[in-house]
Design a protein that fits this description.
Blueprint lengths: L11 E5 L16 H12 L4 E3 L29 H5 L5 H8 L8 H17 L3 H11 L4 H6 L3 H15 L13 H4 L6 H30 L3 E6 L8 H5 L14 E5 L9 E6 L7 H16 L4 E4 L7 E6 L9 E4 L3 H10 L4 E4 L7 H10 L4 E3 L22 E3 L8 H7 L2 H11 L6 H11 L4 E5 H4 L24 H21 L20
Parallel strand pairs: 1-2, 1-12, 2-3, 3-6, 6-9, 10-11, 11-12
Antiparallel strand pairs: 4-5, 4-7, 7-8
């Protein structure tokens, strides 16, 4: 029997804003006061969903899609204010983070400071400080968290300890060798300290995230998460589960992940991730995915499956070529995988990230599963009336986006689009083109699609200076941040009008979830 992944909730809308982009005093967004500001905006605007990028600890390139672990959280998102209030950190120790830029993430500065701060705070732990943190956030105690940690988290604890011990070097160069040897090794005092630091920072991440999610859900806002299909080669996941990947006898991948040339990049994209051994270790890979999904759904209300195409056929690039154009298509697990997923997660909500060039097999599987997919307005205005992204061709089951974190902002798109595209845009939407970001927002909310999503940058009418990621570019990505005044201004001046649109098109939160009433006000 074909599993059914269709959207069963009513019409709704949401905003995309990664946690790193929130305002804070510590160089990066976190689960603290900045998240409350944004939740106020969402509730006031009548939104039901907050979409975020993956929350794992980031490595080289700072991409949330290339993390050190699928099962752990990014310690940068811990609100350090709580540690100061618990008497574990001082103002002088936090001062270097306060000097970091407020409008962007300086990942080098975060990398230099956060581990030292967690070490210092853990070394000062007392019963009173633990009691304070446990009472403030609720949830599991530190002791129970450590004892009940999942297999994936335990793998990350050890990985993180050795990563610090060997000064960030890739795990293949570690003297302790593979995971099976490392977990039997006797740890020296320094490495044991790093291990305890990892446990402490992960406990803080998860109790603060649980509190953040509770606050969101109380406002009627669901957390829309994202799960990357592929894993970083230099990760706890691959280190501890190397048998599940297409690696040679030396542990080296002969082929790596990416995509061929498409509208995101003319030369394709070389991601470099190891590929799953779907054929040789199918049952083990499926079980590994069950654990990944179980971990994800302990956090998220809705989950986007990144690179849906890769479950049908995936692009395998020879590891030594460094040229994404030289890849080849190989068969993925297909329907068997989704039958397995639905059997274990019968009621969970999934969205398919199906952007890029799609094969007939991908389209067929997507249709059979009835899984909601993505419609992106920036791809719509090519001049062809049968363009599937045009609102009149949109499917009710799908999610309508103005753009994604991999696109220009809507203003940036319009400014760089050809005059032909801009002409189609203006004629189709019957607008002047003076405010393309908000024209796009209106088109998304008014569409027939079950869910409409747009980046917060579009609410702020920002150009490409606020773009999150440019696929194929190795640096200067994932750095944009909003400041407090931008969110406060959007809550006061934009959210009431957005609520009126959400009400008009049947996407609104119940009024009691709103911070204040104001539907029907004109946009200022």
């Amino acid at each position: 029997m074909t599993p059914d992944f269709s959207w069963k909730s009513g019409r709704a809308s949401g905003v995309h804003m990664h946690i790193s982009s929130l305002p804070s005093e510590f160089g990066v967004g976190n689960f603290g006061k900045g998240s409350d500001l944004f939740l106020d905006f969402l509730a006031e605007g009548g939104f039901s969903y907050w979409q975020i990028c993956p929350l794992g600890p980031t490595g080289y390139g700072d991409s949330p899609y290339q993390t050190f672990s699928s099962f752990s959280g990014n310690p940068y998102f811990v609100d350090l204010e709580a540690l100061k209030e618990a008497g574990l950190l001082s103002d002088s120790e936090l001062e270097p983070l306060g000097r970091l830029p407020k409008n962007r993430c300086d990942y080098g500065g975060l990398y230099e400071n956060f581990p030292k701060l967690f070490s210092a705070a853990r070394s000062r732990l007392t019963k009173d400080s633990l009691d304070y943190l446990e009472k403030r956030y609720g949830g599991v105690s530190f002791e129970d968290f450590c004892e009940g940690a999942s297999e994936g988290l335990r793998e990350y604890f050890l990985f993180s300890a050795f990563k610090r011990k060997f000064l960030g070097a890739p795990w293949k160069s570690w003297p302790c060798g593979d995971y099976s040897r490392a977990k039997r090794a006797k740890l020296d005092v320094e490495t044991r300290g790093y291990l305890e630091d990892a446990k402490f920072s992960q406990w803080l991440f998860f109790i603060q995230f649980a509190d953040f999610k509770r606050r969101a859900n109380e406002r009627g806002v669901k957390i829309f998460g994202d799960l990357p299909i592929f894993l970083s080669e230099d990760s706890a996941d691959v280190w501890a589960n190397s048998r599940l990947f297409q690696l040679d006898e030396n542990g080296e991948p002969s082929f790596v992940a990416g995509v061929g040339p498409d509208y995101f990049s003319e030369s394709g994209q070389l991601w470099g991730n190891p590929l799953y051994d779907w054929e040789g270790a199918k049952e083990e890979v499926f079980e590994f995915w069950r654990r990944r999904l179980e971990s994800a759904f302990e956090m998220y209300d809705v989950l986007r499956l990144d690179h849906f195409r890769g479950f049908v056929d995936y692009w395998a690039i020879p590891a030594k070529t460094f040229d994404a154009r030289k890849g080849e298509w190989r068969k993925g697990p297909g329907m068997d995988f989704f039958k397995y997923v639905r059997r274990h997660f019968p009621d969970k909500v999934f969205i398919a990230e199906d952007l890029g060039l799609l094969s007939e097999g991908v389209v067929e599987l997507r249709s059979l599963l009835k899984i909601p997919a993505m419609e992106v307005l920036q791809f719509a205005f090519t001049g062809n009336s049968d363009n599937s992204y045009l609102p009149h061709n949109a499917l009710r089951k799908n999610v309508m986006y103005t753009g994604t974190h991999d696109n220009s902002t809507s203003l940036g798109w319009y400014e760089s689009a050809s005059e032909s595209e801009r002409d189609v845009f203006r004629r189709y939407l019957r607008v002047s083109g003076k405010d393309p970001a908000w024209d796009m927002i209106y088109a998304a909310i008014s569409s027939v699609s079950c869910l409409s999503i747009f980046p917060f940058q579009d609410v702020l009418r920002l150009g490409d200076e606020a773009r999150m990621n440019t696929p194929g570019r190795p640096d200067r990505n994932w750095t944009w941040r909003a400041d407090r005044s931008q969110i406060e201004s959007a809550t006061e001046n934009c959210a009431p009008y957005l609520r009126s649109l959400n009400e008009l098109f049947g996407r609104t939160l119940p009024p009691e979830k709103s911070v204040a009433n104001g539907a029907g006000l004109e946009l200022k």
